[in-house]
Specification:
The chain is α+β, with helices and mostly antiparallel strands and 176 residues long. It is 15% helix and 36% strand.
Amino acid sequence: MRSNRKITLAAAALASTLLLSGCGGSDTASTESTEELIAPPVEEVQASGGFNSPVKIPSGVSFTLSEPTGFKPGKFAAGQLPGQRYQQFKIDINNGSTTAIDLSTFIIIGKTSSGVCVDIFDGDNGMEGAPGEPLAAGKSLAFNWGLSCEGKSGEDLSLVLSNEGTAIIEVTGKLA
């Protein structure tokens, strides 16, 4: 009984050490650790284009991403990394398909030539992720998105929209 208790305490101490080792640290994030957290899309994108132009996939759904602009995150925003450029843009989706689109797994993978971007969730600036309700066939919706990106203004920016683990489109342009 005493031996089991020692093993349990040792395991708990090891787990605590491992958990706490991830806390704190420097103000800069490692690109390697960020890339490991992002699951790559299962297949190639279905269509590509630029900002401010509709990008239509074979199912009839079209996506328009506005050109990114810089912004200042609100007091309670999450995801912004010090020293990075904070980008916001609007996503318009027009469901021209015959079935509803479940957006519950919708993600955007952003990359610059300097590294990866991470999502910013900021209620003060209307960036709360994708809507939780499916988008019915024949309907449209718009929502805001925010990213924290490595790089300088004018640097190349690539955004891959993915849903249910499948890449949908890629939109390229420049950081604001």
